[in-house]
Amino acid sequence: MINLQELRTRARDLLTKGEVRAVVGYRRGSRGMAAEPVVITRPEEAAQLVWDPSCVHNLALYLVEDRKLLKHRRQTPDKPIAIVAKGCDARAIVVLLQENYFKREEVYILGVSCEETGVFSDQKLMRRFGVNSQALTDARFDGTDYVVTSAEGEQRCAAREVMAERCLECRQPFPKVNDVVLGEEKARTLEAPFAALGRFEQTANTQVARWDFWKRQFDRCIRCFACRSVCPMCYCEECIVDSITFTVAPDTTAEEKANRVRWIQRSATGSENIGYHMTRALHLAGRCIDCGECERVCPVHIPLRLLNTKLERDAREKFGYEPGASIEVASLVSSFRDDDPNDFIR
Amino acid sequence: MHEQQQQQTQYEPKIVAFLCKWCSSAGSDLAGVSRIQYPANATPITVMCSGSVSPQYILSAFNKGADGVLVSGCHIGDCHYMEGNYYARRKLYMVSELLQFIGVEPERFRMSWVSAAEGTKYAKVVRDFVEDLRHLGPQDKLKAQRP
Description:
The structure holds two protein chains of two kinds.
Chain A: H1 4-16, E1 23-28, E2 35-40, H2 60-73, E3 81-85, H3 87-98, E4 107-112, H4 122-129, E5 138-141, E6 145-150, E7 153-158, H5 159-162, H6 165-168, E8 180-182, H7 195-203, H8 207-219, H9 226-230, H10 254-259, H11 270-283, H12 293-297, H13 304-319
Parallel strand pairs in A: 1-3, 3-4, 4-8
Antiparallel strand pairs in A: 1-2, 5-6, 6-7
Helix pairs in contact in A: 11-13
Chain B: H1 2-10, E1 15-20, H2 24-33, E2 42-47, H3 55-63, E3 68-73, H4 84-101, E4 109-113, H5 119-136
Parallel strand pairs in B: 1-2, 1-3, 3-4
Helix pairs in contact in B: 2-5
């Protein structure tokens, strides 16, 4: 476990010295130990900060929100914004930097390492203990097991039983690009990379089975766009799949509005849902850093990670590309190699 | 049995073919002026480069009821814009992988390199495609269910 006091001190010092204008981090929520994101601007608020396995959110999203707000207010800040970032959050920031969404000096990465563990999956907690993180009062990792405290008293279980699926498949549980890292900086060697994807492919091993599976998933999508809203990579002001985001200026004529291309309708019907999810997966190809937030927030439990990790694995195996690894490299779709797969072309 | 056969012969697959202006479009033209016989099922859409074909075009074609989508461009190394087809290859590889992943028949999306001199190859690509699609039957997985 990392030293929480150090995290708070660092955040407080950054704010006291005026090196940053705000710190994005986690604080204890109103129920149980479940953490919630918080943006603090005063040094004394630093005491609220926490870091524990209930810090599931990808805070990189708030950097995007901040950027949008600044643009709207036509402000250019003179100081960076600090962010408490896990390994996956930092990879998201790397992708944003790679795409020049903001500059490196505009963000201060206060890295935290997940060390041997990761964050909780509320679904898995429910399955194991019958309660989610909102009913827990404490959780700690004692080196081999999780010891969780709830109304039932202290209970323990192996970490992997309650850890989020994506954390089990995480190669790099600490921020590689950072300004400071608290905790151990140790990469993992995985026994089963892309484990969830592998399991899916084993069970749905025919084309018909895959279609049956995905049809069932996509048919129940209600197009709430939660997956898009929670994704730090989905920062487009105008979203191609959602016509209500199309810009309407005072001088936009009715004809222009009517003639905007609507590639995908907003109706939550099977075909349009497939179009939406396929488009999203393709837009995230080489950009998705597998923070698993889309799957976590989905109200109808569509296993969206499967789509994203599928393309992540292809990018890795076929193009030797790892998302979020470096700011300098060209992105997946803006680069190519002579030996890219060619045998599917006639 | 006889009726079923008749239905099968009646079904004409619809293909949307995105052809790059510099090679494949000229190739299809050559097939035409050389009077090479090939099925008329493909609707050609000329694009400036195979690299300009967005995955959205492909999804949209399927959504609008295409039974198959063909993207054809210059051979690797011959792109009019030097490297457009390299980008296309990488991008559309992922589209084809994703289509297979969700259980769409892999034969429905096809890519080919056809140069301006390969009229016969273009005819063959379309002929093979139509043949394969005939076996698969109509595409209704990605097609919009609109009244």
